[in-house]
Design brief:
- Helix content is 43%, strand content 22%.
- It is α+β, with helices and mostly antiparallel strands.
- The strands form seven sheets. A five-stranded mixed beta sheet has the order 6-5-7-9-8. A five-stranded mixed β-barrel has the order 12-13-20-15-18. Strands 11-14-19-16-17 form a five-stranded antiparallel beta sheet, with no helix packed on it.
- The termini are far apart.
Length: 839
């Protein structure tokens, strides 16, 4: 029992120590903030600029919140869940309503960041000065709090205008209240933390579990229920944001998570997503344990990490011996849980690892404990006192070095914002017609300053695009092209996440203004060194696609009672969902799983030649696809598939699980090509039919569109079905007749084929002209092409007659004489000639 007088003296001493520490840390934080703001203003002059475009996303949501329209990014647009932090935009909105509008909202954001940063610094001191509440180590705690205050990553985050410092403050406040066993305040801090960022729910869950294990529960059931109810409050706070999302957008998940999380990346299998998260987790811990990032150098001193884990290890051993849930155990659980959750994000290492900062912040109070433990263990040792001061001095100096380095990084990123995002937003505001919608990748500054409605290709601030963003450029195009918010202009990077495809497809049309920038070595403000403003070109985008190939139109003419009963727009996620579309890969293809091109239809049969050219998005498949179509029972189906043949590939087509045809994707890159499949009426037994298309091993199939026609297919019959020749191993390629029409400069060769030829693959026809007595040497003239104008290999023939025609141009120096015309076929893949079975 400590006498009251002694206790009063001790309390007074502690009070004086805390006041000196508070004053010292105030001065350090104030000096740091002044230096960084001076650096920023030296670059941006006026106005004060934040070093991240993302900051201005919060600014725009805050402005809308102040105007009474929260969760709506631009007036008149639907509500979205693009703001990851629920609490931060309303706090910014307070400043907006106080008069910090326009560019000056940056000062309010800096004030919030500075207050939260000092609060975090002070909490590092308070947490570090106590070790199991049994001894005070104020000097060590002060040195570690000072090291924290001058560490570059934390200063950067606090003055970036983002919510990171606010979350860091709330997390440390929760930890401190747990350490002091102040249960009600710990519950309140955890509730506050959960509302700031989604991962706060994880930390709150661990904290409340620890509190539950440390509480001496009342004996009566009513008392236990009352206390247990309080512990659930922070967890219930985790339902607030999903609940608001449901009410505002109809979906519990935020668009930010859909756009950033590995787990939402449906372009790769679930196993690959988990492996990506595991790889991120391992890489994250390697960098945390070394304090080093290969891109930006040293984040935290290596000595800090070693001593922190040493101290935590001692604390955990003590906890095990005492069978207690100590603050060391809670901190380790926080570290593991937070890094595991952050590892699921594509953005885990973005913006100088701001998502990992709460983990790194825990190292500083842990080192203060470690230094105190050192003093307990080695008191009286000859070199002990000098070493105890050497270690904090080294950590403090190393942290100061990172603070200086990050001041350079801060200036570099403010410069990038000044030179690229700001002038582009100003140009759009001044030069693009009022009300025109602008497609963007970075939505912050453009949303806050351009005064134009936006189409956010990433999907943070409009409902819908986020899922397409994860699927690649084909899905991005399809969603955008059919959106009610389709952009009239673009102010965008042309080479991020496959946006180059949009540029090459002509969707990014005329270049109106360019904004290049030198990114330097420490960029996190800009996704690329070039952005431009484009006039959108939707001239090749069709409201409804239609088959255009001559051979396809000929086959459709043979359907009695022709009706287009259904169509599947591949890579259009709404169309895919409506048809229960499924796709799979046997191996992951390089690049994106969806692509977009603007191409001409090969051998187009439309009178309007402009209609032969179309932009379309589709899928790159190594396994196959399946979808459900609407059908009328008993009627023949002609399934017309638009594809982009980059290589010759064999396909198997199934209807309701039964094989109906082998098809060929010919290698005709640079053109749209139709492949037509006949599904006989007896295979159509219901009002829906499940189609499955499987890709041959080692092949890549590029599917873009499916049209479903029904009626009675009546093929053109031959007068004399007896072939003059049969080609191929089974003699399936049947030549019914031929015609040779010579002229002065060419020979016309007409061939009449009979289909189908289901096992004949991707065959090329050759027409050779030989000297009558020199048939075993090189031909004097020749034509080599696929049948029917180059688009219809025999493996894709339907039943009926095909009239094929070839023109052999004669060389100018051809001598008069007797010549032989030779006709045959060879396999496109192997070059092997088809055997002649008869004739």
């Amino acid at each position: 029992m400590i006498p009251a007088a002694v206790q009063h003296v001790q309390n007074g001493r502690v009070g004086r120590q805390q006041f000196v520490a508070w004053l010292a840390l105030c001065m350090i934080v104030g000096l740091v903030v002044i230096v960084y703001v001076a650096v920023s203003l030296s670059i941006s002059a006026d106005p004060l600029l934040m070093p991240l475009d993302d900051t201005y996303i919060h600014f725009q949501y805050a402005r809308q919140f102040a105007g009474g329209d929260p969760f709506v990014y631009y007036d008149g647009d639907p509500a979205t869940s693009g703001g990851t932090s629920l609490l931060y935009p309303p706090l910014l909105a307070v400043g907006y309503m106080l008069g910090f509008t326009g560019w000056s909202l940056a000062y309010w954001a800096l004030a919030l960041g500075t207050l939260c940063f000092f609060g975090a610094v002070w909490l590092v001191y308070l947490i570090g000065r106590s070790w199991d509440r049994s001894a005070d180590y104020p000097v060590y705690a002060l040195s570690m709090a000072a090291a924290f205050a001058v560490s570059g990553p934390f200063i950067w985050a606090a003055l970036s205008g983002m919510e990171t410092a606010l979350f860091l403050f709330a997390a440390l406040l929760t930890l401190y209240m747990l350490q002091q066993n102040r249960r009600c305040r710990a519950v309140g801090a955890a509730f506050f933390m959960t509302l700031i960022r989604p991962e706060g729910l994880i930390l709150a869950g661990i904290s409340m579990a620890a509190l539950a294990l440390r509480v001496s529960w009342p004996q009566d059931r009513r008392g236990r229920f009352r206390w247990g109810g309080w512990l659930v409050v922070p967890l219930l706070a985790g339902l607030v944001q999903p609940g608001i999302n449901v009410l505002a957008t109809g979906s519990a998940s935020s668009s930010g998570m859909q756009a950033k999380s590995h787990l939402y990346n449906t372009s790769v299998p679930v196993s690959d997503r988990l492996l990506d998260s595991l790889e991120f987790f391992g890489r994250m811990w390697l960098q945390l344990l070394t304090g080093h990032n290969p891109d930006f150098g040293q984040y935290t001193p290596w000595l800090l990490v070693v001593m922190a884990f040493g101290a935590l290890g001692v604390g955990i051993v003590r906890a095990w011996k005492r069978r207690e849930v100590t603050i060391s155990l809670v901190m380790l659980a926080w570290m593991l849980a937070l890094t595991a959750s952050v590892a699921t994000l594509d953005t885990a290492f973005w913006q100088f690892k701001r998502y990992q900062l709460p983990v790194m912040a825990l190292f500083f109070p842990a080192v203060a404990w470690g230094l105190g433990l050192w003093g307990e263990k080695f008191t009286g040792w000859r070199w002990e006192r000098g070493l105890r001061w050497l270690f904090p001095a080294l950590i403090l100096i190393s942290s100061l070095i990172t603070g200086i380095a990050f001041a350079r990084n801060y200036a570099e990123n403010v410069r990038i914002v000044r030179d690229q995002q700001v002038p582009m937003a100003r140009w759009v505001k001044a030069n693009i017609p009022k009300g025109a919608r602008v497609g963007v990748h970075d939505v912050g500054l453009m949303g806050y300053f351009s005064d134009h409605p936006l189409y956010d290709v990433v999907g943070l601030t409009l409902p819908g695009p986020a899922e397409s963003w994860r699927q690649g450029p084909g899905a991005i195009y399809e969603h955008m092209a059919h959106s009610d918010y389709r952009p009239d202009y673009f102010a965008i990077y042309p080479d991020v996440q496959g946006l180059t495809y949009l540029r090459d497809a002509g969707i990014l049309g005329e270049v109106l203004a360019e904004f290049p920038v030198d990114l330097g070595d420490y960029n996190v403000a800009s996704a690329a060194d070039y952005q431009a403003v484009y006039r959108a070109d939707w001239s090749t985008t069709r409201e409804e696609e239609s088959a255009a190939q001559t051979t396809t139109l000929d086959y459709l003419a043979q359907i009695e009672g022709l009706v287009l009963v259904d169509q599947v727009d591949v890579a259009n996620l709404d169309s895919e969902a409506a048809h229960d579309y499924d796709w799979w890969q046997d191996k992951q293809p390089p690049g994106f799983v969806t692509e977009v091109y603007t191409l001409d239809t090969y051998a187009c049969g439309l009178e309007d030649r402009a209609a032969c050219r179309a932009a379309d998005g589709g899928r790159v498949l190594t396994g196959g696809e399946a979808f459900t179509i609407q059908t009328t029972p008993g009627q023949d189906v002609l399934l017309v598939t638009r594809l982009h043949g980059r290589a010759s590939v064999s396909l198997d087509v199934y209807a309701n699980g039964k094989l109906v045809a082998h098809r060929i994707q010919p290698d005709l890159p640079g053109h749209w090509l139709d492949v037509v499949t006949l599904v006989p009426g007896e295979r159509i037994t219901g009002h829906t039919t499940r189609i499955r298309i499987e890709v041959d091993a080692n092949g890549t199939y590029r599917s873009y569109y499916h049209w479903v026609y029904q009626g009675a297919f009546i093929p053109v019959e031959a007068g004399d079905p007896v072939p003059v020749a049969a080609l191929g191993a089974a003699g399936q390629v049947r030549l019914l007749d031929y015609e040779i029409i010579p002229s002065a400069d060419q020979i016309e060769v007409g061939l009449t084929w009979a289909g189908p030829a289901p096992e004949s693959g991707d065959g090329f026809v050759f027409v050779h002209l030989y000297h009558y007595d020199q048939v075993n040497v090189e031909p004097v003239a020749q034509v080599v092409a696929r049948p029917m104008g180059g688009v219809l290999p025999p493996g894709n023939w339907l039943p009926g007659v095909l009239y094929d025609r070839y023109t052999v141009l004669l060389p100018e120096d051809l001598l008069p004489g007797r010549y032989v015309v030779a006709v045959g076929m060879f396999d496109a893949g192997t070059g092997q000639r088809y055997a002649i079975q008869s004739g």
